[in-house]
Amino acid sequence: RYLLYFGRLEIRKGVDTLIDALPAVMSADRDVHCVFIGEDMGFNGVPFVEYAQQTCAVFWPRVHFLPRMAHPELFGIVANATLVVIPSRWENLANTCLESMVLGRAIIATTGSGFNEVLTDGLDGLLVPPGDPTALAEAATKALGDPALLERLGAAARLRASDFTVDGMARRLQRIYGELSA
Fold it and tell me: pTM value?
């Protein structure tokens, strides 16, 4: 069982928020691990891996940092994640979100950004305020403790992802053009 963050490890992506939430999540769930995949851009001059070692010292054996990897290998890890966490402070529309949705993963993302356009809180994902490790920890703990919720969120996310395929976008545009010409 693992939480997964994948993408650039940088402050605007909220990686520090996830790291700050981990002690509460890992205290509540003794079996969960957290995997970070991507290029470590650091936090206040300190690599995130070092920040995580300090912040999550007691839980360090369950925190894993992997380098950026090719999509075929990455998607195998995403497809097996218990929960994908996208804690961005701001984001247009992250490919990580769409990729996770297509793979049927439950997702926690942040409000006030492009995720509001893609995910509906409680329906096909969980949304928390950016920069709030307490809210993130509560959402993750809730999801990890409810396998039926994880399954439901993942299935709904996969279904919603079909709206963002070429065919799905074409159907939407046809509907909009039809409404405008009526």
Answer: 0.91
Report how far apart, in Å, the C-alpha atoms of 159 and of each of 25, 105, 125, 166, 173 are.
Answer: 28, 11, 12, 14, 19
- What domains sit in the chain, N to C, each tagged with a CATH number? 2-181 (3.40.50.2000)
* Cβ contact 108:125 at 8 Å: yes
Give the whole-angstrom CA distance, residue 95 versus residue 25: 25
Q: What is the pLDDT of residues 77-117, one digit of tens each?
A: 999 999 999 999 998 888 999 999 999 999 999 998 889 99
Question: Among all chains, which residue has been given the structure tokens 């247009």?
Answer: 92
Strand partners, 37: 6, 66
The two structure tokens encoding residue 133? 């490790």
Q: In 55-125, which ranges are E strands?
A: 63-66, 83-86, 107-110
* Helix (H) / strand (E) containing 144: helix 133-144
**Collapsed DSSP state (helix, strand, coil) of residue 119:** coil
Query: What's the number of CA atoms in the CB half-sphere (13 Å) around residue 177?
Result: 6
Burial group, residue 2, by CB count within 10 angstroms (0-12, 13-18, 19+): middle
